[in-house]
Automatic annotation (TrEMBL):
Domain PNPLA: 6-172
Location of the motif GXSXG: 37-41
Lineage per the UniProt record: Bacteria, Bacillati, Bacillota, Erysipelotrichia, Erysipelotrichales
Motif GXGXXG mapped to chain: 10-15
Segments carrying motif DGA/G: 159-161
Record's protein name: Patatin family protein
Listed transmembrane segments: none
Molecular function (Gene Ontology), one example: hydrolase activity
Signal peptide span: none
Organism of origin: Amedibacillus dolichus
Active site, per annotation: 39, 159
Alphabetized CDD domains for the sequence: Pat_hypo_Ecoli_yjju_like
Keyword vocabulary terms for this entry: Hydrolase, Lipid degradation, Lipid metabolism
Cross-referenced Pfam families: DUF6363, Patatin
Entries under InterPro entries matching the protein: Acyl_Trfase/lysoPLipase, DUF6363, NTE, PNPLA_dom, YjjU-like
């Protein structure tokens, strides 16, 4: 039997689209053999792997305007716009408790993609013990300029999207022959050059390979989109992406706009569900 994978793009607050897709999957008991997430995608993959429908959205809804969750005050005080201790310790252990037991029993393999700032290369970290490996999820979601470098097992890590925004090739190489890909931009989207490169070059001057990866990110990203379009035509991947252009930014705080994007994700998953089942069952007897 071939393995079914799920690949989740990042995108900061655009990840609420992914929340909607995953909540629809969980509502219909659709779980894959493995999931790999980048940045916000890695965060939302956790609630999917622990089978906690609605958890990701509840966290967003409850804490979006909490200064401990995301604020300039947090950035100034801690060096992280997204409060690391609050998000990766207080929330999962006290406020919206992560179901560690279900995660361990699920058998689903979870990977978080990070970028090694010294080499500029992707680190694909398996997350088996979420009390310990949550550090990789944090690193994956640590945005350049807005987060401190996260040190895990001797590696200095930041946002996985810098090195590999949509890690479909890695998952295929791991043996996931059929993959569902959830993107957070509409089909016509193409990434442009990073306008903040002068600041990035100054901030990360000690890490020239990371600067190079940031400078070339749009090239690799757009090439991956072209490859995914070909895979989609060939039938080896099933892509769910926003049916309309996404207007919100990576740091969006307008709850009405975020809710609309979440609902768009849920509805897009519903609209594609029958075709998705066909995709899964054709090659997965």
């Amino acid at each position: 039997m071939s393995k079914l994978g799920l690949v989740l793009e990042g995108g900061g607050m655009r990840g609420v689209y992914t929340m909607g897709v995953l909540d629809y999957f969980m509502e219909h008991n659709l779980y894959t053999d493995g999931v790999i997430g980048v940045s916000a995608g890695a965060c939302h993959a956790c609630s999917y792997a622990s089978k906690q429908q609605g958890r990701a959205w509840r966290i967003n809804e409850r804490f979006l305007n909490d200064k401990r969750y995301m604020s300039m005050q947090s950035l100034i005080k801690t060096g992280d716009l997204f409060g690391a201790d609050f998000i990766y310790n207080v929330i999962p252990n006290e406020l919206e408790v992560f179901d560690y037991d279900t995660f361990h029993k699920s058998g689903m393999k979870l990977y978080a993609v990070c970028t090694d700032v010294e080499s500029g290369k992707a680190v694909y970290a398996p997350c088996m013990d979420m009390k310990k490996d949550i550090a990789y999820v944090r690193a994956s979601a640590s945005l350049p300029l807005l987060s401190k470098i996260v040190e895990v097992n001797g590696k200095k890590l930041l946002d996985g999207g810098v090195a590999d925004s949509i890690p479909i090739q890695y998952f295929q190489n791991l043996g996931y022959e059929k993959n569902i890909i959830v993107l957070t931009q509409a089909k016509e989207y193409r990434k442009g050059k990073n306008n903040l490169m002068p600041i990035i070059k100054r901030t990360y001057r000690k890490y020239p390979e990371f600067v190079k990866a940031m400078q070339e990110r749009h090239i690799h990203y757009n090439r991956t989109l072209d490859e995914i379009n070909l895979m989609e035509k060939e039938g080896s991947v099933f892509v769910i992406r926003p049916s309309q252009p996404v207007e919100i930014g990576r740091l969006e705080k307008n709850m009405h706009a975020l809710r609309a994007l979440y609902e768009q994700g849920y509805q897009d998953a519903a609209n594609h569900y029958e075709a998705l089942l066909q995709f899964i069952n054709n090659e997965r007897p």
